[in-house]
Design a protein that fits this description.
The protein has 328 residues and is an alpha/beta fold. It is built from 12 helices and 9 strands. The N terminus and C terminus are likely disordered. It binds flavin-adenine dinucleotide.
């Protein structure tokens, strides 16, 4: 006898599988003091509980030393379960020096990079290429690929390792154009296409405050032939002073009504909650619009990042009760 089973009974419930989960990643910066380094250990452990797809470590921004980036990337690589992406810039180095830096990262076992032109050194207003250096991030993407190819050609062992753990190269994208270079979104789309043509695998965006900017960038990039994933960079809007500082640094000014709303709270806990809520709305809007995941600018603090993941059901974990203070 055959039994007929109603279709509803055999259909699996619609739950997101681990593969469906949007990517989650965090940006960290190298600590500027021993105290900051100690606090960062706790922050990294807390972020690790969210099982992010990767964490990225900034490089040389605002004049910070490059050795600390290397140390932090190595620490993450060798003492945690996290996959680090090392930011790398063209600033202040000849091509040969950049090759040596790339070789050092590769020797350490780093397999993922975020290739950037870089900010001007601290105190400088204009970005000037090193006379014997690289001029654009696209050139850096090309160089990363060339260095890896040369290593694989030199040694079959390296070639096998390269096959098992391929090099991945990310680049930056700018939903509202790159204010630092005076570029429009159209300029950025052209630059993004050249980064893809040089061998970039995916892009991470600059901070932005409205979903339509991100979605317009993706739409215009797709129309221009950019096919790589473009991950939105998300800054939790919990600290109005930070939003203003980031606005000055990036040229992406936070909306007045957002600042007014956040500064209107006397109670820091209520302000934190409201800021996470606003950010969650932005995250939901970009994910609904097709974003592959989110990259959270943590400023080396875990609470807002994890609360954001919790509110957006992206796998947040309860944050420890004490939040390490800002790194100095
Ligand atoms: P490039 O790709 O070299 O582009 C620079 C400008 O040149 C473009 O804006 C565009 O106007 C023009 N351009 C380039 N190629 C083309 C083209 N083919 N057609 C038309 N125009 C073109 N800075 C740091 O110093 N350290 C960091 O760790 C760091 N991390 C960052 C992480 C993210 C996610 C982002 C978004 C930015 C980061 N920055 C960092 C800042 C970044 O270095 C600066 O914004 C820099 O001004 C531009 O970098 P880029 O890699 O986009 O430059």
């Amino acid at each position: 006898m055959t039994m007929t089973v109603a279709r509803d009974e055999v259909q699996a419930p619609q739950r997101p599988t681990p593969a469906d989960r949007p990517t989650v990643s965090f940006e960290l910066f190298p600590p500027r003091s021993e105290d900051g380094a100690n606090r960062l250990v706790a922050t990294i452990a807390a972020l690790e509980s969210a099982r992010p797809d990767f964490v990225s470590v900034t490089y040389g921004a605002s004049g910070r030393t490059r050795q600390t980036t290397r140390r932090l990337v190595a620490q993450i690589l060798h003492t945690t379960s996290l996959t680090p992406i090392a930011h790398l810039t063209c600033v202040d180095n000849s091509r040969d020096e950049t090759v040596a830096i790339i070789e050092e990262f590769l020797d350490e076992g780093v397999r993922s990079f975020l290739a950037l032109r870089g900010d001007p050194p601290a105190g400088a207003t204009d970005w000037q290429p090193h006379p014997a250096g690289l001029r654009t991030s696209a050139e850096l993407v090309t160089l990363l690929r060339e260095v890896e190819a040369a290593r694989c050609a030199r040694s079959q062992a390296q070639a096998v390792r390269g096959l098992v753990k391929p090099l991945s190269v990310a680049v930056a994208a700018f939903p509202r154009g790159n204010h630092a270079t005076g570029g429009t979104r159209a300029d950025d789309v052209a630059a993004l296409l050249s980064k893809q043509q040089a061998g970039a695998d995916f892009a991470i965006t600059q901070v932005f405050w409205d979903a339509p900017s991100y979605l317009a960038l993706v739409g215009e990039a797709r129309a221009a032939g950019v096919t790589i994933p473009i991950i939105p960079g998300i800054l939790p809007a919990t600290d109005p002073d930070r939003l203003v500082r980031v606005g000055r640094l990036t040229g992406v000014t936070p909306p007045d009504d957002l600042l007014a709303r956040l500064t209107g709270y006397d109670d820091p806990t209520a302000r934190h909650r409201a800021g996470v809520r606003v950010t969650a709305d932005l995250v939901n809007a970009v994910l609904d619009g097709g974003a592959p995941g989110i990259h959270v600018y943590t400023f080396n603090q875990h609470r807002a990042a994890l609360d954001l993941l919790d509110l957006t059901h992206l796998g947040g974990a309860p944050a420890p009760r004490t939040e390490p203070k800002d790194l100095v």
